[in-house]
Protein: Plasminogen receptor (KT)
Organism: Papilio xuthus
Amino acid sequence: MGGFISINLEENYKKNEKFLQSLNEISMERQIQLQYQMQERQRALQIARNRDIFLWFSAFNITAASGLLTGFRRTKRTYLLAPLLPLMFVNLYYWDLAYGNKLHRIRMEAEHIMSHESDMLELPCGLPSPSSVDQGRLDAEEKKKIHPPLP
């Protein structure tokens, strides 16, 4: 009788193991998809932010350029045109970031770094281990005991 129960338990364990494995695969696929969608949304927010910065900076650039050009026409002093050059470079940078292909170039450079310079991506002291995380947690608790927060 004991042999029958142990065989039945082993069969159930094998069935449950396959079921749990499929659940884990589905869970991991969902987590990967969730992370991908969150990254897409953050990239969209970053692009929108860059476009907004470009519009505000363009308005400032136009205002400053009109004032500097008016001052140049009245006084004929060429040093009044000097600030236009750096302002134009910054404005063009933001235009490229907001509407150009700068993000594509950044992505290509990141892919190059990941494939050819992967040693640059290593974390100092390697990956944290569970023991190092626990040690940090215990150290933080000890610091709280030594220096309790003021009420």
